[in-house]
Amino acid sequence: MNADDECDYELANSGSRQTIDLALSCLGLLLGSIHLTLLIYIRYAQKHKGFFLMLIQAIISVLTMSFLIFGCIVDMCAIRLNSVLAFFRAYIWLFLVNALIAAYGFIVVALCLDRYVALNNPLYYKLSFSKLKARLVIMLICTVVSVLVCFKWLIYNKVDGVDGFVENEVITSTLWYNVIKTASALMQYFVSGVVMILLSVSIIIKLKDVNYQHSVELRLAEGSMNEWTKHHKTTANICIFLTFSYILCNWPYALADYFYSPEKTMLKLSLLLLIITFSTVHTGIIGRTQSAGAQGVLLCHGQRVANVLVKLFDADTGVDRDDLLASGKTDRNGFFRISGSTKEITNIDPKLNIYHDCNNQLPCKRKFSFPIADQYISKGKTVQSHYDVGYLELSEKFPGEARDCIH
Q1: Half-sphere CA count of 81, side-chain side, radius 13 A
Q2: Which CATH number fits domain 289-404: 2.60.40.3330, 2.60.120.260, 3.40.50.300, 3.30.465.10?
Q3: In CATH terms, is domain 3-285 a member of 1.20.120.140?
Q4: Which of 4-8, 64-68, 162-166 has the highest mean pLDDT?
Q5: Statement: the pTM of the whole predicted model exceeds 0.90
Q6: Helix or strand (DSSP H, E) at 122
Q7: DSSP 221
Q8: What sections of the protein cross the membrane (predicted)?
Q9: Where are the domains of the chain?
Q10: What is the pLDDT of residues 216-269, one digit of tens each?
């Protein structure tokens, strides 16, 4: 079929579908470009370390959407195929789009592996795994594996005449091609998905374990566990979110990939990349504003005590620094009321820290914490209900009490 005949056929039978494909691809490109711009700003303008793998993800999204738009334009006959474009559309385009999608998935695996190593071997992570050389090796491995699993698309089509292309049924109908097609589909979608699930489950279990240790261990300073990767909790949550969104979106798509037909692939690719791009933008950039507050009266041997330091934190699990929401001191009547807000993707875990010298003959202040229940978490910046600790006798020994020299 030559280009003119193919265009007439496509426009007559699926013109509206191609318009939707183009609109979705353009929207995906816009979202991906915003995501990439924000990551570049955070990484280079604000000089935050890290974000290398997320930058690669964003670049892959933009490139994929760009190629999808090109395919839409060609299929809508806005560009007439010549011999060069026909060769590119027949042999290169389908391979590039699928290889980029595969690379995106393998980068998600790399992100999950990154969080797993950071949690389980922080010293190795800091000294070796987080270095640029290691990141480049990871990117190279993802690229090579993506090329290998998508090699089948290089020989799926063949040029037909001077400016047309058709499926190369001489090759695609053979046993060896279908064996390769099956193995590559399993590797690209199901093996990578299973690895993501295993790593994500390990991350969740480790986060709970580290969070428990963090809340009960005796330590001299609030920041003693804050030497690991900055913003770990947010990144770990993104990895977990991307894992489940990848499974939800890509395992059904894997069947469409395996039973590929030119009439359906563009819409599936557009929807898939739109969902992935929007999910990445939403997860990495936007959070829900949440607030919490606490109040009470502090006593020392039955006497109201003034100027006792109290702080409200969002207790981050894992290796990230607890976010300070508010701080204050008791008044002359021993009363305090503090509140604060922050943005988080998941629910915040507010806790109240109290630092005092009641019954204290040792260096550094005594410190203990109160977790604040979920019913006292409010939407927005204004606290609807303060957690009331009542009258607290500071001379008593509290569970998980520690000493804090730096507060």
Answers
A1: 29
A2: 2.60.40.3330
A3: no
A4: 64-68
A5: no
A6: helix 122-124
A7: B
A8: 22-44, 51-70, 90-113, 134-155, 186-205, 235-254, 266-286
A9: 3-285, 289-404
A10: 444 434 444 444 444 556 667 777 777 887 787 777 767 665 655 544 444 445
